[in-house]
Design brief:
single chain; 398 residues; Transcription Regulator spoIIAA; Rossmann fold; globular
Length: 398
């Protein structure tokens, strides 16, 4: 059975032909294919102005990104076999990269499954569906996951703002099995309790795995300040690798409680302390108290969530990095990260350069990192490349 068609305006197929997979509502020729004639999640064939087929997408006529390509072939069948094939391909890559089942199994468009994120915590799968197209087909997804991975538990983690934009429920649910009272994962030889249902995103952030490993190797005999520490993913490896003191700062009481639990789990609690505070206020007070640190980790949440927030977000990043640089000991290291897609690597580079010059510090970059390999980058979708991290050294003799 052929899917209905949506037709693009003249010249609006260029981005898709270059490899992107999104169709914006203002690119659709609504005279030939009125958007109100489609229902959220429906499969459609996307056609260029000249009539050439561009592929199969699912559509939501009520959103700015109204279509997302699933295939460059028309009339794709999106059943359990489709999901099993895409999931098998994603699994094959992760199994080449990791020897234990703790990773992001599916990263949306990069794995050919736009609107879907799956984190694997051993036998537990945390699934985030952010679009009406994926939501409409989640029964097929569930069947494929059960057949392919035989998990003990599958959780649909639905508490994100993107679902609201798509007109979807934001209530999370245990879709299969039972959620254990304790979920413990492993990363870089450390162990962590995670809270899937109440934690941020899926309860864990695998994307900084490589950067955290790099930082841990630098931490021996160092005093470390971990800002926006969440549940201890940066600070605990630093303590395990010989940091003399690790101070974690976060505004979330529940995150800090879990961080303290994780410190005890890894037998490093005596060298870690956790402070509940707004990070800006903590930095201001620490500067007044003339506190200095050998290593400062600055890994804030996204401060530029939308393009229109860029100016305010950029200023927030600037203030944070200014304050952090002022509090580094001579020869200190700053790890500065941003997960804001709209703040580019070049923006962060320039921000660090100008902050260092503003306070007369000689700053050099000795490592540049990004998201781990379980967050692969789609070359045609720049939005899939969101994480950037600079390892900075302050030369005390210049």
């Amino acid at each position: 059975m052929n899917h209905p068609e949506i037709h693009l305006k003249k010249h609006e197929d260029k981005r898709l032909r270059q490899g992107h997979v999104w169709v914006f509502s203002n690119e659709v020729d609504t005279g030939r294919s009125p958007l109100d004639g489609f229902s959220p999640g429906q499969l459609v064939n996307v056609t260029a102005f000249d009539g050439k087929a561009l592929g199969t997408a699912y559509i939501n006529p009520n959103t700015l990104i109204c279509g997302r390509l699933l295939s460059r072939k028309s009339n794709l069948s999106c059943g359990s076999n489709f999901f099993k094939t895409r999931l098998s391909n994603a699994l094959q890559l992760r199994e080449k990269l990791f020897d234990k089942p703790f990773y992001r199994l599916v990263f949306g468009e990069s794995d050919g499954l736009p609107g879907l994120v799956i984190d694997r915590f051993g036998d537990i799968l945390a699934v985030q569906i952010t679009t009406a197209g994926m939501e409409l087909h989640k029964a097929f997804l569930l069947t494929a996951l059960l057949e392919l991975l035989t998990p003990t538990t599958i959780i649909f983690k639905n508490d994100n703002s993107q679902r609201e934009l798509e007109g979807l429920s934001t209530s999370s649910e245990v879709a299969y099995g039972e959620l254990p009272a304790e979920v413990i994962i492993e990363e870089n030889n450390a162990h962590y309790h995670i809270d899937i249902l109440n934690g941020q995103k899926t309860g864990w952030f695998f994307d900084h795995r490589n950067s955290r490993q790099q930082l841990a190797r630098l931490a021996c005999n160092k005093r470390v300040l971990d800002l926006f520490c969440y549940t201890g993913a940066w600070g605990i490896p630093a303590a395990l690798n010989g940091a003399t003191e690790v101070i974690g700062v976060d505004a979330s009481e529940s995150a800090l409680a879990l961080a303290a639990t994780n410190a005890r789990l890894n037998n490093v609690a005596e060298r870690m302390q956790f402070v509940r505070s707004d990070v800006f206020e903590y930095l201001k007070q620490a500067r007044l108290n003339n506190q200095h640190y050998d290593i400062i980790i600055l890994d804030p949440p996204a401060l530029v969530k939308r393009k229109k927030d860029f100016k305010l977000g950029l200023e927030a990043y600037r203030r944070l990095n200014d304050l952090a640089l002022q509090m580094l000991s001579p020869g200190g290291i700053l790890v500065s990260a941003s997960c804001s897609y709209h703040l580019t690597t070049e923006n962060l580079h320039e921000l660090l350069r100008s902050s260092a010059r503003h306070i007369d510090r000689h700053l050099v970059f000795f490592n540049q990192s990004g998201q781990g390999p379980d967050h692969p980058i789609h070359p045609g979708v720049p939005e899939s490349h969101y994480l950037k991290t600079f390892f900075c050294y302050v030369n005390p003799s210049l």
